[in-house]
Amino acid sequence: MSEMKPGRSFVSAQQVAELAGVSRSAVSRTFTDGASVSETTRKKVLEAAEQLGYHVNHLARSLIHEDSGIVCLIGADINTPYHSRLLDAITRRLQAINRVAMVINTSGDSDSVEAALRQTLNYRANATIVLSGTPPASLINTCINSGQHVILINRDDHLDGPESITVDNGVAAREAFHMLHRAGCRRIAVVSSQAGTPSLVARERGFEEAAREAGLAVTITRAGPTGYGAGFEAGRLLLSGSERPDAAFCVTDLLACGFMDAARVEFGMNVPTDLCVVGFDDIEQAGWASYQLTTFRQPIAQIAEHITTLLDSDNPDVVNGPGAASGSRVCFHAAPVWRRTVRPK
Amino acid sequence: MSEMKPGRSFVSAQQVAELAGVSRSAVSRTFTDGASVSETTRKKVLEAAEQLGYHVNHLARSLIHEDSGIVCLIGADINTPYHSRLLDAITRRLQAINRVAMVINTSGDSDSVEAALRQTLNYRANATIVLSGTPPASLINTCINSGQHVILINRDDHLDGPESITVDNGVAAREAFHMLHRAGCRRIAVVSSQAGTPSLVARERGFEEAAREAGLAVTITRAGPTGYGAGFEAGRLLLSGSERPDAAFCVTDLLACGFMDAARVEFGMNVPTDLCVVGFDDIEQAGWASYQLTTFRQPIAQIAEHITTLLDSDNPDVVNGPGAASGSRVCFHAAPVWRRTVRPK
DNA sequence: CAGTGGGTTGCACATTTGTGCAACGCTTGC
DNA sequence: GCAAGCGTTGCACAAATGTGCAACCCACTG
C-alpha cells in the first residue's frame, strides 16, 4: 500500500483534491473540526490523503489563525539535572494542550538571549518561556505587544510586563538556616557560584539574613560556575583551613554533591557526623544512596501546570493599562525534603 | 523610544512599508540577503521596522522556500543525563547552522512516536531526528518522500531508508568483558533493563558472546526501567545470593551507579576490591568522586557534528533507486574511559 | 543632445491554507 | 407537483511573504 511517487516534496491539499475528485475546499474542511462535509466526500478525501501521505501544513494554517501552536523555551545549561527535568515536565504538559515546544539553547554567548527572543518572534510563537538569562526589556515589550505570553521562570528581576513564576527562595533559605542551627551547627558556610542568578542570590541573601538575626556571620564561597566541580573546589578550600565549618548550605544540589564528595574523599569526613549539608532543588541524585541529601524541592510539576493554565486561559487581558500591563505573578513554595545530611536534633 | 500602539498582534511587512513610504517589496528585499535595495530605502525600512518591532514571519517565508529551518527532535526520558546532554549538544550545533530545534517528548504512550512523526510533517520540518522509540516504517517513508532527512540515533533497527548514526555497542561490550576478564574476574553479572532498546540489547549480546568465547557463562538481570533504581534493585538481588558475582557490566552508567550504591550501602562492599564495575555512556556522574566509574564514552560531540554535516550537505541524493533509497550509515567508536572501578591487572 | 546601460522599484503572481457567500441538489411538507 | 428548507460544494478572497518582469530614473558616453 501507500504507493508514492518519489516527489521529494511535501504533498499539498491541491493534489489530494485532484486525486479525490473534489475541490480543495473539501479537503480543507475534512481536516477542520466542525466543518460541514458529507460523509462520502470525507471518506474519499481521507483515502486520497492517506495514499499520498498528506499532512496539513501548520505553517500555512498559522497564517490565518493567530495561533502557531509553537511555544519557545529559552534556556542555558539544559544538560543540568534541574533544567532537564523542567524541560521534560514543560514539554509534556505543552503537548497535552496541543502545543509544541521549540527549544532555544542560549549557552555560550551572553547576547544569545536576544537572538533567542528574535527567533520567538520570527516563528510567531504563542508564548516565550525564559528559563535563564535576562532578555532586554525592549524586546520583551515587542513580544508582549505582538500578543505573545512572556513567562519568566525563577527570575524575579522586577520587570513588569512579563508573567512570572517563582519559588520562595528567600523563605526556604531562611528555613534552611534554622534547620542547621537547630541541629547545633554554628560555623556555617554558604557555598554558591559565580553565576549570580537571581534565585541563587535570593537564597544567599535569605540565609545570610536569618544567620545575622541569630547572631551568626556566614562566609560565602563562589568557586566557579554552578555545578559539581565548583562545589568540590569550594569544599577543598573551606575544609583545608584551620577553622573548619561544621555545616554548609549549598544553594544548589549539584554544589552540595561536589562539596560532600570533597569532604569525604579528600578529608575523610563523615556526613552528617562531622558536617551537616543542606542543598536546593531536589535533583534526582539527591535521593541516591551515596548522598541522601536533605534539600528543598523545586515544585516542577506545579510550575509546568501553571504554565498551561496561563496559556489555556482565553485572553485574560481584562485590564490594558496604557503604559504597563503588568503580568501576573505566582510564587510557589519549596518544601524541605528531609534525608540524612542533617543531624537529628 | 519604540513607541508602539497596543496592537496586540504581530507587525506585518505591509505596515512597515506604509510607515517607511515604500512598497512592500522593498521591505521584503531589505530582509533578504543579496537582494537589490538602495542604501537610502534600506535605511528607511530598517528604521521603520525597528520602530514598529517588525520581525520577518518565518512561517510565511517557509511557504515559498522549501525550507522551514525547523528540525524535530523526537525522544523520551529527556531528563536523563545521557539524553539531556545529547539534546544540549544537538540543539547547539543546529543553531550554529541556522536551524531551530522542535522537541517532541514521547514519554508515556507507546504510540506517541507516531504522533510525533505527524507533527514533524505538519510543521514541514527539514529533518527528523529520532532519539528513542521505533516509528512505523510507513510514516518514515512519508517523511523521506516529503524531502525530509530522517536520522535515527543509536537505533540500529535494520530499516533502510533513514540515515542512521550508531555507536559500536557490540565491539565496546566485548572490550568491556576483556577488561574485566583481564582483571581476574570470573563470576560476572550483566545488569540491564527491561527497556529492550536496540543499543542495550547489542551491549548485552556483545558481552555475552565474548564471555562464551572465553568459556564463561553470564546471567543477565533486568530489574526495571533503565535507571538508578533498577541498578540498585539488581544489586540487591544479585549480591544477596550465596554466590556473589565478583564483577558487573552495567549497560548504562545510571544502572552502574545504582548497582555500586547497593553494593556499598546495603552490603558494605568495596569497589574495586570486592567487586569490579564497568558502565556505559560516560555521563557526568561517572566522573564524580563517589563513583569514579570506568566506562565507555558516547561520542556525543561527534554525533551532533555529523548531524550538521548531514543537514548542510547540498542534496547528496545522487542515487535515487526506485524502491529503497538507502540512507547513509555511520558508526562511531565508544572509547573506554579508565577510572577506578576496575582493578589494575 | 540623444541613446544606452545599470541599478531600483513596484506590480503581479506564486506558495498553502481557512472561510464567507452564493449556488446547487435533495428531501420534505403541503 | 411545487416551494421551502437544509446540508453540501465550489468560487473567490484572506493571511504574509519572495521574486520575475517590466518600467523607471539617473548618469554617462558618443
TrEMBL record, chains A, B:
Pfam families: LacI (PF00356), Peripla_BP_3 (PF13377). Residues 11-65 form the HTH lacI-type domain. One of its GO terms (molecular function) is transcription cis-regulatory region binding. Coiled coil: none annotated. SUPFAM superfamilies: lambda repressor-like DNA-binding domains, Periplasmic binding protein-like I. The keyword Repressor applies. Keywords: DNA-binding, Repressor, Transcription, Transcription regulation. It comes from the Bacteria. This is Substrate-binding domain-containing protein.
